[in-house]
Write a structure and sequence with these properties.
alpha/beta; about 30% helix; about 15% strand; about 200 residues; Rossmann fold
């Protein structure tokens, strides 16, 4: 029996859950524990929208990265040509930009720095896979809008393969006796990692 004089129930706001959220993770004060990075990593951040560029720079600046920024793919290409340019370990770039888009910029960066990782930031994930079945090794994406925790975790996962420095328990899928073809194993693991299930 309901009371007609009772105040209506208030809806709780939807929590801001990081994009890389795993329901079985033990929650902590700041999502997952991210101790400071031991080694400085060189990051080039590129976006043609000034507010987004400044936001990404500010978020990534919370970790121990050496950051360079550019407001277009063409400006980023000019940075690469500067004498004494220190190099790129990770490129964080918008996908859709006039002049030189993120995919073209990524190809240029990886031609010069083959070990560089590429994190595409996009509101058009469907365009990212035009003509592709999957992203290449060392490439990932995060969709707009994203939270600060999601971006930091995506960058760490892409660059280091983990978010925290805690020891990761052995993965049973790494037991090669369970796999007859390593190419199939690698492809399955890449798909799982892309969808954040591995």
């Amino acid at each position: 029996m309901t009371d007609a004089t009772a105040p209506p129930k208030r809806e709780l706001p939807i929590p801001n859950i990081p994009l890389i959220h795993r329901p079985n993770d033990v929650p902590s004060q700041s999502s997952l524990s991210r101790p400071p990075l031991a080694n400085r990593t060189r990051v080039l951040i590129v976006d043609d929208e000034q507010p987004v560029l400044k936001l990404v720079v500010r978020i990534i600046g919370n970790d121990n990265y050496e950051i360079r920024e550019a407001d277009s793919g063409v400006a980023a290409a000019r940075l690469l040509d500067e004498p004494g340019f220190p190099g790129v370990d990770m490129l964080i770039t918008d996908l859709m930009m006039p002049g030189m888009n993120g995919r073209e910029l990524a190809a240029l960066v990886r031609h010069r720095y083959p070990a560089a990782r590429v994190l595409f930031v996009t509101g058009f994930a469907d365009h990212l896979f035009t003509g592709l079945h999957e992203l290449g090794d060392g490439e990932s994406f995060i969709e707009k809008p994203f939270g600060a925790e999601g971006l930091l975790e995506a960058a760490r996962l892409l660059m280091f393969g983990h978010i925290s420095n805690a020891e990761v328990p052995a993965d049973k899928r790494d037991d090669e006796a369970q796999w007859e073809d390593n190419r199939l194993r690698s492809k399955i693991l890449r798909v799982l990692k892309r969808w954040k299930l591995a």
